[in-house]
Protein 1
Amino acid sequence: MLKTIAGTRGLVRPRRLRRTAQIRGLVRETELSVNDLIYPIFVKEGLVGREEIPSMPRVYRLSLDELVVEASMVKELGIPGILLFGIPQVKDELGSYAYRPDGIVQKAVKAVKENVGGLLVMTDVCLCQYTSHGHCGVVREGRIDNDESVEILARIAISHAEAGADVVAPSAMMDHQVLAIREGLDKAGFTDVAIMSYSAKFASALYGPFREAAYSSPSFGDRSSYQMDPSNIREAFREIELDLREGADIVMVKPALAYLDIIARARSKFNVPIAAYNVSGEYSMIKAAAEKGWIDEKRVVMEVMTSIKRAGADIIITYFAPQVAGWLKA
Ligand code: PBG
Ligand code: ZN
């Protein structure tokens, strides 16, 4: 006969498995590993040395020399890879500096590949840092032209592959960008270069510090005609589905924390690696509160990282990567 809840007192005691560190370790369901982490890095053309980003303490715009120093540190910590963002000296209407062979990202990829062996090099593929208007695509009569943008994005991805990138990560949220990039890469002989698509990228206010770091705020309007409405979850699955059909190897949900439900449900729907981008605003909020002494930074960061993994992310892209790697070692 089933016991009543009252009758089970003394029989079921969940606290038995929380008694010591050893037993808690045995029953722990989610364990963060350095292997889960990717570190985003900003490289600035023409810069000498490094400049700290005011809203992102410990994150810098780096010269090519400093990039090599940073990448070596990342490698030393056991972090498997970096995601490169370029900040060009010159912007134009069409973002043409994004696909030049001697562009800042192309040089950055080469510098890392030549000087730091065994580090996975991923590149962000977008136009917003390179266009004078700051949009992620080409502007025609005040609107973002999808199909023209997609052609340029493919050229950018190929130029990154030519420089030696292992993974290209399109973030422009243009329709069919993954297909155009996959076809372009394959035609150019880069069948082994993988695509990590920013599939479900939301029009979020949490990108604020990044845009300050990369000088990439749109000069008119906003990004809601291409990035997703934060209210939508079914549409996120549709975006992921389309990107997989177009040949994406890894799909991404971005931002991470305010979108853990999307990560969790995508995890149960799709049998592919899922990346989550713990974005700049998520970083800055923790840094600011920690600086004020209002929270314990290490504990909050580890809790947040664990939550992203527990939700189902295989890969966590985070500005905290070096600190987390250090804490995991200690
Ligand atoms: C460029 C891009 C952005 C981010 C990654 N790639 C900014 C944006 O869409 O405005 C945001 C990353 C972050 O906030 O850390 N398309
Ligand atoms: Zn962009």
Protein 2
Amino acid sequence: MIDNIPKNVLEVNSISKDFLNVKAVNNISFNVEQGDIFAFLGPNGAGKTTTLRILLDIIKADSGKIQWNLNGKSNQLPEASHIGYLPEERGLYLDIPILKSLIYLASIRGMDKKDAKKSALEWLEKIDLADRANEKLQVLSKGNQQKIQFVASILHQPTFLILDEPFSGLDPLNQEIFIDFIKEINNQGTTILLSAHQMPLVEKIAKKVFLINNGMELYNGSLSSIYQTFGKKHIIELQFESDVNEFTLRNLSGIESVNIIDDFRVKLTFEQLTDMKSVLNQLVKVEGISDITSYKPDLHEIFLQLIKNA
Ligand code: ATP
């Protein structure tokens, strides 16, 4: 019989962690299934890095339970060879040639040195740094060091990859390239848990999201269901021929918020249950509109809405 039940490769139950008087992680639970791209999203100080460090036993939780189920073994701690980790505070050897460092790191995680060299050279080619293979890491730019650190986390082909803020320090082009790498590695079967605050980037790849604020869960579930549940509002951007008449807009039926963008543009958010027909019937009566754009809330807007309602 084929087992269609998704397999949890990580189960986290009610973990908490305090630092002095800060509740860095406050009673959170989640499961990561095999093949997931699971994104931890939240602002600075939300508790993302603390959670990831607890999972890897770099710091201990005050309470709660963690179970890893990787490569047929169930444990509180995974084997190093099964895990790839890109830490927030990047920590490669700065004064050792890049290729040598990559081969060494893959080999201590169980990879044959010949295979590690072959794979490292392929990845250096992919990230456009093949010609720097014998230079020391310290002479590379910050973004290029970040790319090398990423390669170091995946070279030994981990079953489960943890990326803490993978997009920080990268320019927009390299952020897009990283998005493609993450998708590629996931398609090859690696489960991915990442933390980030760049929601538009995460929206492109995540299958599940965990929204966290002040150490607490705001939402935990699939990306598609968050849009279905919270993304039904109508958001309308209006352009006016002359100054915006804010008073008229604030009195529209079903209006939730009016945000003035500049003298001639305004963003209207309607309450969840307001239908589009009613919105349009009202807008035809508003004078001076020269353009109208309608869109649905993105993840960032849903996040703000959830914080407001928390
Ligand atoms: P960022 O996006 O800025 O990296 P984060 O979501 O990863 O933020 P954490 O680094 O987990 O957040 O921090 C959560 C809270 O715990 C913050 O208030 C932080 O100041 C506090 N904190 C984290 N580590 C320590 C520590 N070692 N000692 C004291 N407080 C800490």
Protein 3
Amino acid sequence: MQKNDIFELTITDMGIDGEGIGKYEGMTFFVKDAVIGDKILAKAIKLKKNYGYARVEEVITPSTFRVAPPCPIYRQCGGCQIQPLSYEKQLEFKEQKVRNDLIRLGGFSAEEIDSIMEPAVGMETPYRYRNKAQFPVGYDKEQNIVTGFYAARSHNIIPVDDCLLSVEENSAILSEIKAYMDECHVTPYNESTGKGLIRHILIRYGFTTKEIMVCLIINGKSLPSWEKLIARLEKIPGMTSISININREDTNVILGNTTRCLWGQPFITDYIHLRDCENDFAATDTAIAYRISPQSFYQVNPVQTEKLYSTALSYAGLTGDEYVWDLYCGIGTISLFLSQKAKKVYGVEIVPRAIEDAKQNAQLNHIENTEFFVGKAEEVLPSFYKNTRGEMRHPDVIVVDPPRKGCDRLCLDTMLKMQPHRIVYVSCDPATLARDLRILADGGYTLKKVRVFDQFCHTTHVETVTLLVRK
Ligand code: SAH
């Protein structure tokens, strides 16, 4: 086998990034855009000793799991890695990923996992679910102003005003901003020269309130003739907040530190409803309001978030008397949910600004049984354990929702010392979840429930909620 050789390949498996995997003459090939079950003509593009990478030259016989991707630019964009896979198969892929990691990396037996895994929770309509979009701004070859997305692994903008994962309202907003830029000779930012003004357009949408927030991230102190922009945007139904954010650094980080509200209020409000897990996730009357500013961290798929948080709350098994810790609490989203049914909830989060939001959101909802701490979970929890007496030292429940790298060992060890009856682990990375669950299981806990949630349909991201109970 040589580079650029063309050969027939049957795709028999799927890799962790959604790529197709097939075997040819003892070599394993990874093929982007190939779907499990496809028979393809593959072109070898990179060869290693026992494996290689190939490209799809032609699909000879398409897999029965293949669907026509509805997005015209899905292949260039790279944001949706598994859009050509039927939605049912996508859910199965995510469930298998969690199952395999729990068995391979977590050392749980297949029987154990199969007996406790609940069916994956997908979306009825897996499109238009994102409440936040960030569009880079630039020029095309003809020097027209374009907004869109970066092509996979590059900073070339693919012009697109409508992403099928985002809300339809975005297109009209982007058109008005481009028209304003043309009218007032406002330039897009150029990464290589550091010149030009407008870098990104951030749009957030409240699914329940229909409030819209627009924030222009600019490489400068102010926006010329900004009243003209406001005049265009304020006509859009739902427009609630228009602001600029200043970012003059040479960086890939989108937002800078300073935000100035130009029109309306500096935030939008949205609600997260508690759903009835026993009753097909029917909405209930309980809802928590959240204030969202341009910088706030907020779950991007509100429909699935309601199901995920409601499941976390149901796994916590609260009756009203419990003392609960919510570690890695962000803006307190889960904490405020838990507080509805707990005696007291303590939240811990590393980002000070998020804790400010958490406290404000508690006030906004007249919630008085929460307390929030800024700091690392692996520092706050051990120091609390060492220096304090009382119920929170041996809480009834601990909920964790760490970033991809999972929980710090010291945090897990302290959780074990605190001996809560239940631990609810919300995870966005099955591999670190499996690692951490093993530590908790060896420390005296039984894994009782595992459920996969599809928060990011058409991508390979997987979210999981699990329940552990003390032996
Ligand atoms: N539970 C929240 C946020 C989960 S995201 C929600 O559902 O909205 C994970 C959070 O962990 C982020 O807000 C991140 O800032 C925070 N974080 C990261 N490392 C941390 C650490 N060592 N200690 C505490 N919080 C941390």
Protein 4
Amino acid sequence: MKVWKSITVFFVAIFLLIVSVYGQESPTNAKIETLLSRMTLEDKIGQLNQHSGFSEDEIEAVKQGQIGSLLNVAGAEQTNRIQRMAVEESRMGIPILFGIDVIHGFRTIFPIPLAQACAWDPDLVRQIEAIAAKEARAAGIHWTFSPMVDIARDARWGRIAEGAGEDPYLGSVLAAARVQGFQGMDVSSSQSIMACVKHYVAYGQADAGRDYNRVDVSRKTLYEIYLPPFKAGVEAGVMSVMSAFNTISGIPATANPFTLREVLRGQWGFGGFVVSDWGSIQELVVHGFAANGADAAQKALQAGVDMDMMGHIYGSHLLELVCTGDVPSSLVDEAVRRILTAKAALGLFDQPYVDPDKEGDILLHKDHLAYARHAAGRSMVLLKNENHLLPLHKNMKSIAVIGPLFDSKDDYLGTWACMGRSEDVVTILEGLRNNVSSGTTIQYAKGCNVLDEDNTDFAEAVTIAEQSDVVIAVVGESCDMSGEAASRTQLDLPGKQRELLEALHETGTPIVVVLMNGRPLSIPWVAEHIPAILEIWHPGVQGGNAVADVLLGDTNPSGKLTVSFPWTVGQCPIYYNHENTGRPADENKYTSKYLDCPDTPLFPFGHGLSYTTFEYGNLRLSQDAIERDGTLTVRADITNTGAVEGEEIVQLYIRDMIASLVRPVKELKGFQKIHLRPGEKKTVEFSIGPKETGFYDPEGRFIVQPGDFKLWIAWNSADGLEGQFRLQ
Ligand code: GLC
């Protein structure tokens, strides 16, 4: 008997050892559970509350632990002061999470995200976000509501400026890179902040391009177009997600169990927390989805929204809802646990304060400014360059800088300029002065304003144009004409800017149009009559130097559009990865086209020129047929056939000719940015396998179906070297 007893004791000991090792809580989890166990329901609900700004009458709320997070409060001194109240004067001592919209830089402002995307360079955006994170953390910020990863196909929607454009593949690559840039290898470090992919989900498909409008979208399109960049962010380890304002086929995104629980947590295993957009929980009532604040609180929390941004809904209703049993306390615990986990991961329990002496040295550091100049140069897109008008010679005799934007510093910063300041901006006039030879005369005149109908200054502009060798006309949109709540029904150059260009064109002096805008514009007259067009978007604090670098040839432009430019707003939404339809446009009347406009974009997705030329040739495939789970390699030779070195963004597109769900006429599935010296040739190679040939069905299943495929290795979405293969 003794033997059996010994054996039993032995195996029980082994079992307990295994459980203790594998079932062991991490120290952090244990700490959080201990904290949770000591918190009252009021303490817990306080963690779900986010307020904006800070006024002295909120001091008590902080000391009572009723505010878990603050947004739009920055600066080491200010955040430390408030943090001391939370950590040292409240009962639980839980640190506050400070968040702000670091969308394209904190104090060093980079080009707007749509501009950065045109560099097609994940390393570039990763480095930009790392710089932004370093500056923000030094100022006491722990969390950015960025990256905005909404796919946008409608230029009427002003928030197209904040994202990566119309393509889900490129949007996914850049979403992951931005998350990695912000969060770094260790989000608790003094150089990292927590990222937040937003606005979950399909916000960019607002009806009629009108912000906050409804979204009616199929599950197929959700999985194919709008969800991928969020999935990429989750796979990159993003620690938070922001729910969107819009409805998703009748159910608001901020109370949508399908997207918030079934997809985000069930299918993707997201472990972070969800914050509502500003007041979007309270707006459930306005949508007509919740009867009142209490109903809104219950629906949002049950759907999976953990933190209430500026809605004051959780703070007003959750206590009673839990006490009456309408909301299980376990849901509150689940939300609080996620938020405390994020605070612990950020190291806030160990080091809640920042060193105020470091902030000044880090913000606007010269290396950051240098990178902002580099990034702006690579974000610019040369749309047209007839007869090689560009680059200009540095020792040109006379230049006229004209237009309403060349000197308007605020507009260089673009939308969502965080802590950026106009005095930090280098304008195009300053950039040119910094870089042309001393013998070059630069004259300048606004000529008109951005928006109004006043043309009384045309004459002055025309006069200096007549006296100059070249005109640089800086036209487009002011910074507040894109971004949130900035939808437009027209995409033309606003105000009298088009007429100003016509008057300048009459002088016969060659004109370079420099476009400063936050969305695609419909500029057919400019495209037809102006020999050189450089798209600079809102280029950030170093925009003027970067424009001078490009115009004077120190930077060879390499950017390519990530959004289609329409001929007219009537074409919107317009995007390259469209379906073929049963009657694709041709000369036959009864086909899918407009009576009064071409059926193609003015400038296609992927378009961008260089000061050199590239020749694509010798497309070849490793096989012309592969098994469904097989992989083939496609190669092509790219040669720099011009006189200067340059970079080329080589794009891979495919088309699935026949499938159980109609597939787009083209889908971007890869890209490579290569550098070529004059005369140099490189072979570019892409692999094509199930990841490229498969697609999602409406249930979110990824499927690969046999059939014929086409592929292109291309310089934009409208052209390229074409090949084909079969999936068997
Ligand atoms: C806004 C925006 C969101 C932003 C938030 C905080 O309404 O929709 O993108 O992060 O409020 O500023």
